[in-house]
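Posting this for the archive.
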Amino acid sequence: MMNNKKFIAVIGGGQPSRREAQLAEEVGRELAKQGVILVCGGLGGVMESACKGAQSEGGVTINILPEENRQAANPYVQIPIVTGIGHARNLAVVKSAQAVIAIGGSYGTLSEIGHALHSGIPVIGLNTWSLSRNGQQDNSIIPAQNPTEAVNKALNLATSQ
Protein backbone atom coordinates (compact mmCIF):
# COMPACT_ATOMS: atom_id res chain seq x y z
CA MET A 1 0.00 0.00 0.00
CA MET A 2 2.75 2.49 0.93
CA ASN A 3 5.07 1.47 -1.92
CA ASN A 4 3.31 3.66 -4.47
CA LYS A 5 2.92 6.63 -2.10
CA LYS A 6 5.25 9.60 -2.05
CA PHE A 7 6.93 10.58 1.21
CA ILE A 8 7.61 14.32 1.60
CA ALA A 9 9.30 15.80 4.67
CA VAL A 10 8.26 19.16 6.06
CA ILE A 11 10.96 20.80 8.15
CA GLY A 12 11.09 24.07 10.04
CA GLY A 13 11.54 25.72 13.37
CA GLY A 14 9.85 25.05 16.65
CA GLN A 15 9.06 28.76 17.06
CA PRO A 16 7.81 29.90 13.65
CA SER A 17 6.28 33.25 12.85
CA ARG A 18 2.51 33.28 12.49
CA ARG A 19 2.97 33.38 8.69
CA GLU A 20 5.32 30.38 8.71
CA ALA A 21 2.84 28.40 10.82
CA GLN A 22 0.07 29.25 8.32
CA LEU A 23 2.30 28.20 5.40
CA ALA A 24 3.09 24.90 7.14
CA GLU A 25 -0.56 24.15 7.81
CA GLU A 26 -1.42 24.87 4.16
CA VAL A 27 1.46 22.65 2.99
CA GLY A 28 0.19 19.84 5.22
CA ARG A 29 -3.33 20.18 3.82
CA GLU A 30 -2.07 20.18 0.23
CA LEU A 31 0.16 17.13 0.81
CA ALA A 32 -2.82 15.23 2.23
CA LYS A 33 -5.05 16.24 -0.69
CA GLN A 34 -2.38 14.83 -3.04
CA GLY A 35 -2.24 11.53 -1.11
CA VAL A 36 1.30 12.14 0.12
CA ILE A 37 2.71 10.74 3.38
CA LEU A 38 4.01 13.64 5.52
CA VAL A 39 7.26 13.01 7.40
CA CYS A 40 8.48 15.41 10.06
CA GLY A 41 10.10 15.70 13.47
CA GLY A 42 6.85 15.46 15.41
CA LEU A 43 7.32 18.34 17.82
CA GLY A 44 5.78 21.84 17.84
CA GLY A 45 5.96 24.84 15.53
CA VAL A 46 6.18 24.14 11.80
CA MET A 47 5.99 20.40 12.47
CA GLU A 48 2.77 20.69 14.46
CA SER A 49 1.18 23.06 11.94
CA ALA A 50 2.01 20.76 9.02
CA CYS A 51 0.60 17.73 10.87
CA LYS A 52 -2.54 19.68 11.78
CA GLY A 53 -3.09 20.60 8.14
CA ALA A 54 -2.49 17.04 6.94
CA GLN A 55 -4.81 15.58 9.55
CA SER A 56 -7.57 18.05 8.63
CA GLU A 57 -7.60 16.54 5.12
CA GLY A 58 -7.33 12.92 6.23
CA GLY A 59 -3.61 12.64 5.49
CA VAL A 60 -1.05 10.33 7.07
CA THR A 61 1.79 11.72 9.19
CA ILE A 62 4.94 9.89 10.24
CA ASN A 63 6.91 11.68 12.91
CA ILE A 64 10.46 10.87 13.96
CA LEU A 65 10.83 12.09 17.52
CA PRO A 66 14.16 13.07 19.07
CA GLU A 67 13.22 11.78 22.54
CA GLU A 68 12.35 8.43 24.05
CA ASN A 69 8.91 9.66 25.01
CA ARG A 70 5.96 9.16 22.67
CA GLN A 71 4.03 11.79 24.67
CA ALA A 72 6.46 14.49 23.46
CA ALA A 73 4.73 14.35 20.06
CA ASN A 74 2.38 17.11 19.01
CA PRO A 75 -1.36 16.30 19.21
CA TYR A 76 -1.65 15.77 15.43
CA VAL A 77 0.97 13.02 15.20
CA GLN A 78 -0.45 9.77 13.84
CA ILE A 79 2.59 7.52 13.62
CA PRO A 80 5.23 8.48 16.21
CA ILE A 81 8.66 6.91 15.86
CA VAL A 82 10.56 7.23 19.12
CA THR A 83 14.35 7.44 18.72
CA GLY A 84 16.07 8.82 21.81
CA ILE A 85 18.83 10.17 19.54
CA GLY A 86 18.18 13.91 19.83
CA HIS A 87 19.08 16.06 16.84
CA ALA A 88 20.61 13.06 15.07
CA ARG A 89 17.02 12.23 14.15
CA ASN A 90 17.23 15.11 11.61
CA LEU A 91 19.07 12.74 9.29
CA ALA A 92 16.30 10.12 9.62
CA VAL A 93 13.63 12.73 8.86
CA VAL A 94 15.13 13.74 5.52
CA LYS A 95 16.37 10.27 4.53
CA SER A 96 12.79 8.98 4.96
CA ALA A 97 11.55 11.44 2.33
CA GLN A 98 11.76 11.71 -1.44
CA ALA A 99 11.72 15.52 -1.26
CA VAL A 100 11.84 18.11 1.51
CA ILE A 101 9.87 21.31 2.01
CA ALA A 102 11.67 23.74 4.33
CA ILE A 103 9.58 26.46 5.96
CA GLY A 104 11.39 29.09 7.99
CA GLY A 105 13.63 27.44 10.56
CA SER A 106 16.83 27.90 12.47
CA TYR A 107 20.03 25.85 12.64
CA GLY A 108 18.27 22.51 13.10
CA THR A 109 16.41 23.16 9.85
CA LEU A 110 19.67 24.17 8.19
CA SER A 111 21.23 20.86 9.25
CA GLU A 112 18.30 18.97 7.71
CA ILE A 113 18.67 20.99 4.50
CA GLY A 114 22.36 20.07 4.42
CA HIS A 115 21.65 16.35 4.96
CA ALA A 116 19.02 16.36 2.21
CA LEU A 117 21.16 18.18 -0.34
CA HIS A 118 24.17 15.96 0.47
CA SER A 119 21.96 12.92 -0.19
CA GLY A 120 20.57 14.26 -3.48
CA ILE A 121 17.12 14.81 -2.02
CA PRO A 122 15.51 17.96 -3.48
CA VAL A 123 14.75 20.80 -1.07
CA ILE A 124 11.98 23.29 -1.78
CA GLY A 125 12.11 26.45 0.31
CA LEU A 126 9.24 28.58 1.58
CA ASN A 127 10.43 31.58 3.59
CA THR A 128 13.60 29.69 4.57
CA TRP A 129 17.37 29.74 4.30
CA SER A 130 19.29 30.82 1.22
CA LEU A 131 22.80 29.60 0.56
CA SER A 132 25.94 31.05 -0.91
CA ARG A 133 29.29 29.45 -1.55
CA ASN A 134 32.47 31.47 -1.93
CA GLY A 135 30.37 34.62 -2.18
CA GLN A 136 28.31 33.17 -5.03
CA GLN A 137 24.62 32.39 -4.72
CA ASP A 138 24.01 28.63 -4.40
CA ASN A 139 20.64 27.74 -5.91
CA SER A 140 20.38 24.27 -4.36
CA ILE A 141 17.27 25.23 -2.38
CA ILE A 142 14.45 25.59 -4.91
CA PRO A 143 12.26 28.56 -3.99
CA ALA A 144 8.47 28.40 -3.93
CA GLN A 145 6.13 31.35 -3.60
CA ASN A 146 3.24 29.57 -1.89
CA PRO A 147 2.28 26.20 -0.36
CA THR A 148 0.65 24.79 -3.50
CA GLU A 149 3.72 25.61 -5.60
CA ALA A 150 5.97 24.07 -2.92
CA VAL A 151 4.01 20.81 -2.90
CA ASN A 152 3.84 20.63 -6.71
CA LYS A 153 7.58 21.21 -7.01
CA ALA A 154 8.27 18.61 -4.31
CA LEU A 155 6.11 16.04 -6.10
CA ASN A 156 7.65 16.77 -9.48
CA LEU A 157 11.20 16.55 -8.16
CA ALA A 158 10.73 13.69 -5.69
CA THR A 159 13.39 11.03 -6.00
CA SER A 160 12.37 7.47 -6.77
CA GLN A 161 13.96 6.01 -3.63
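The first strand starts at residue 7 and ends at 12. Residues 18-33 form the longest helix (16 residues).
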